[in-house]
């Protein structure tokens, strides 16, 4: 994508945030007074080095920003969107969680802890990420196996992350389960408890420990600095669905948790939001009929894990700096009420 920005002597110069945003979008062509360019160039430090420019008039500089690596044009976000950030992704060994870890690494995260049930599954995910992104990403990954519904797991993955990477900025609560569809009249109490245990209790524990961890590490502005917690709810957290009472109740409740916690910690600099995916092609969707995906959504296919991961990345990054307490639908319009 390329864009043309014109700023003449009568206009105010481009502000560093605007220019930084343009740099993130992709190759740009901008124009503004040369004297100010020097300042802006300094503001952008190393990132403006890729600019090529030519003088067109004495007091004006045109410069193109073909920017950084060409691979960036395949990504809808900046390779610096999460520079220096340390993140946790629960359920990171598979599906949406895996795609989120990958997106975070591509966005320059300093470190990502993958939390999942089995150490083997996490190690396979790490090998796959190294295959996709290069062996050096292994230095930015940390594995933490455990059951998120257990209190000690959340405490452990937060503390080990801080020990490993010396801070915590972002926590994505993605681990979840969906048991086979059952009418509520036949639903086993044990299945209800299991669903709530992972999808709600696990997220509550993760949010609680993550807040403590984020506040424990030194921040810039405010107590939390630019910290973010993203909860993975669902389209079924917006609309119920026959046969999914336990799952849907857990995902509705998760948004209640998100909304309350956002009010508590938003003022401390920790933004808390939720993403509500529609049907996404992951192991969780296997066994479910494709009919609903093709008929209910406005885009006639199931989503891909990375299409949710990009929304999570947006909520985790400063691009969403005025969002706190929101539920972001990524469901091609499946759920209609909001
Ligand atoms: N796939 C979809 O259609 C869809 C739609 C809406 C929401 N979601 C939500 O997205 C999230 C990710 O699901 P997915 O589709 O990527 O599924 P997935 O099965 O591919 O990934 C879920 C991951 O969570 C892990 N996990 C499950 N229970 C755990 C536990 N107790 N402790 C630690 N890890 C555990 C699994 O091992 C797995 O790696 C879930 O919260 C799910 O409810 C998925």
From TrEMBL:
It holds the Pfam family adh_short_C2. This is 3-oxoacyl-[acyl-carrier-protein] reductase. Keywords: NADP, Oxidoreductase. InterPro entries: NAD(P)-bd_dom_sf, Sc_DH/Rdtase_CS, SDR_fam. PROSITE patterns: ADH_SHORT (PS00061). It comes from Rhodotorula taiwanensis. One of its GO terms (molecular function) is oxidoreductase activity. It comes from the Eukaryota. Belongs to the short-chain dehydrogenases/reductases (SDR) family. The keyword Oxidoreductase applies.
